[in-house]
């Protein structure tokens, strides 16, 4: 891992899943990354050739609840030898005031819902390991010496028959994940630094254009405003004229957005939202999937610069059917894990 060239997190994950597969012998080993909105993506996979690939599929944040993520920060390795095995009741001293917590125990039985989730996937045994990186400085608490860690993702191993991995092998995997975490942390920090440098360089160039010309220059020259923000389209409404870049609403639709901004957000200098629908824009449905999120800054009381993002569901490949069949009503659907993991 340490000998790999820098600047390639994807290659790092590919090597990791292959090494874990060789160490443990599981049928499928995946690197599962959490995005900013907490949904997950399979970014690397090493599997038995006859198994269906999950590489590149995205799954909603609800597939791995917050309680489970909290436990993965506390316990870096979680093994289930046989999800179909009946759980064995723990008999404890009646004088104990609270039930015995098995959160930190390898012997803890899987939740019934998770066991069903694995069965639906065609998996009997699993091994899950945490991939952590340094958290934000705000999360360090009162002790500045102790850097908080945050969950970047998981290494998820599945097997189609019962499988037990002895402690020495699990310990070796945990050590491998520690080395991976150090390398990953370096890559994440380098990527953040490179992104910041790019933004600052672009900002300088755009500011220079603004000083030499009207805002029109940052739309008609290179670099332009789209190099500053990750987006699918941008627009300038200046002196009652329009300049549109790539995937942007029509002039009439932008004029309607301007009217809404002046009526509902006139006291602010800008607005940023992941969803115009959630922001309360009445014409959001007319924009379709091409435009969902928007950032806007006010140049003057009548002039605006817009950045637009399309709907995420349109851009990425989701895993699992939109509507699982076999459930009579919504209540049944809520009480069961997904029954499909295929792309739709």
Automatic annotation (TrEMBL):
Query: Quick check: keyword Transcription in the entry?
Result: yes
Write down the InterPro entries for this protein, in alphabetical order: GAF, GAF-like_dom_sf, Phyto_chromo_attachment, Phyto_chromo_BS, Phytochrome, Phytochrome_cen-reg, Phytochrome_PHY_sf
Question: A single Pfam family, by name?
Answer: PHY
Give the top-rank taxon of the lineage listed in the UniProt record for this protein.
Eukaryota
| Gene Ontology MF terms in the entry | photoreceptor activity
Domain Phytochrome chromophore attachment site, by residue range, is 8-178
GO terms under biological process = detection of visible light; regulation of DNA-templated transcription
Q: Which UniProt keywords apply?
A: Chromophore, Photoreceptor protein, Receptor, Sensory transduction, Transcription, Transcription regulation
Recorded hits in PANTHER family, A to Z, give: OS08G0260000 PROTEIN, PHYTOCHROME 1
Q: Which family does it belong to?
A: Belongs to the phytochrome family.
Q: What does this protein do?
A: Regulatory photoreceptor which exists in two forms that are reversibly interconvertible by light: the Pr form that absorbs maximally in the red region of the spectrum and the Pfr form that absorbs maximally in the far-red region. Photoconversion of Pr to Pfr induces an array of morphogenic responses, whereas reconversion of Pfr to Pr cancels the induction of those responses. Pfr controls the expression of a number of nuclear genes including those encoding the small subunit of ribulose-bisphosphate carboxylase, chlorophyll A/B binding protein, protochlorophyllide reductase, rRNA, etc.
What this protein is called in its record is Phytochrome C
């Amino acid at each position: 891992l340490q000998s790999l060239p820098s600047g390639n997190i994807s290659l790092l994950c590919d090597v990791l899943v292959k090494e874990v597969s060789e160490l443990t012998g599981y049928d499928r080993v995946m690197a599962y990354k959490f995005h900013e909105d907490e949904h997950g993506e399979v970014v690397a996979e090493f599997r038995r050739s006859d198994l269906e690939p999950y590489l590149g599929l995205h799954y909603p944040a609800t597939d791995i609840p917050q309680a489970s993520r909290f436990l993965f920060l506390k316990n870096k390795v979680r093994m289930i030898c046989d999800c179909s095995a009946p759980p064995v009741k723990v008999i404890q001293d009646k004088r104990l005031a609270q039930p015995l917590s098995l959160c930190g125990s390898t012997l803890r039985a899987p939740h019934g819902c998770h066991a069903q989730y694995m069965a639906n996937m065609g998996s009997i045994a699993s091994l899950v390991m945490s991939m952590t990186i340094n958290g934000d400085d705000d999360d360090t608490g009162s002790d500045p010496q102790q850097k908080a860690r945050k969950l970047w993702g998981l290494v998820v191993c599945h097997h189609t028959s019962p499988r037990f991995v002895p402690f020495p092998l699990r310990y070796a995997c945990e050590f491998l994940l520690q080395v991976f975490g150090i390398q990953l942390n370096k890559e994440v920090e380098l990527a953040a630094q490179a992104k910041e440098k790019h933004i600052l360089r672009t900002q300088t160039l755009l500011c220079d254009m603004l000083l030499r010309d009207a805002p029109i220059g940052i739309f008609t020259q290179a670099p332009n405003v789209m190099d500053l923000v990750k987006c699918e389209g941008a627009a300038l409404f200046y002196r009652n004229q329009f300049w549109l870049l790539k995937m942007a609403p029509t002039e009439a639709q932008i004029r309607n957005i301007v009217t809404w901004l002046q009526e509902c957000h006139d006291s602010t200098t800008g607005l940023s939202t992941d969803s115009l629908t959630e922001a309360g824009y009445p014409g959001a449905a007319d924009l379709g999937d091409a435009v969902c999120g928007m950032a806007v800054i006010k140049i003057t009381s009548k002039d605006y610069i817009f950045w637009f993002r399309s709907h995420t569901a349109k851009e990425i490949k989701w895993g699992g059917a939109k509507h699982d069949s076999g459930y009579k009503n919504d209540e049944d659907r809520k009480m069961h894990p997904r029954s499909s993991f295929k792309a739709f």
